[in-house]
Amino acid sequence: MVTAPSDDQRRFPPPDRRPNPYEKIRQAILSGELEPGQPLVEATLAEWCQVSRTPVREALTRLEQDGLIRRGDRGLVVRESSPEEILDIYETRIVLEATAARFAADRRNQNDLLLMRRMIPRMATLADADATTKAAINADFHRLVWRASHNGSLIDLLGRLSMHLGRYPATTLAYPGRWETSNREHEQLVDAIEARNGELAAELAGQHFTAARDIRLKLWETDLS
Question: Does residue 183 surpass a pLDDT of 90?
Answer without folding.
Answer: yes
